[in-house]
Amino acid sequence: MKRYRIRITEEAEQDLIDIYRYIAVHDSAENGMYVLDKLESLCSELAEFPLRGNVPPELDRIGVTNYREVRFKPYRVIYEIIGADLFVHCVLDGRRDMLSLLERRLIR
């Protein structure tokens, strides 16, 4: 079975930090760590099962199909497979205006 190298972009790293900080401030540091651990595990699992995700519907509607997503609700991990590398581009709260965020972050 082929394993992909997981590459987390600086923007995605910042997303994870921001998510942790928000939860730590508005709920608890423990819950922040729980969510952070779940999201990092989800990213790691993609090394073996990269095709388990689907094309984000917001991108699919505009014909952009090279990105995929997996979810740990309400968070969405958006990634792209290029050769043997899997690039995590963003980790976003799915309750936000996803089309605007994805257009700004991925379709520049």
Would you spell out the secondary-structure blueprint of this structure?
Blueprint (H helix, E strand, L loop, with lengths): L4 E4 L1 H17 L2 H17 L11 H4 L6 E6 L2 E8 L2 E9 L4 H9 L2
Parallel strand pairs: 1-4
Antiparallel strand pairs: 2-3, 3-4
- What is the subunit organization of this protein? single chain
What would you say the CATH architecture is? Answer: 2-Layer Sandwich
Largest sheet: 4 strands, mixed
Count every helix, treating DSSP H or I runs of 4 or more residues as helices.
4
Order of helices and strands: EHHHEEEH
Q: Into which percentage range does the β-strand content fall?
A: 25-35%
Helix content: 40-55%
Mean pLDDT: 94
Unreliable spans are none
- Trace the largest sheet across and list its strands: 1-4-3-2
Describe this structure in words.
The protein is an alpha+beta fold and 108 residues long. It has a single domain, classed as YaeB-like fold (2-Layer Sandwich). It has 4 helices and 4 strands; from the N terminus they run βαααβββα. The protein has a 4-stranded mixed sheet with strand order 1-4-3-2. A hairpin with a 2-residue loop joins strand 3 and strand 4. Helix 1 packs antiparallel against helix 2. The longest helix is centred in the first third of the chain and has 17 residues. It starts with a strand and ends with a helix.
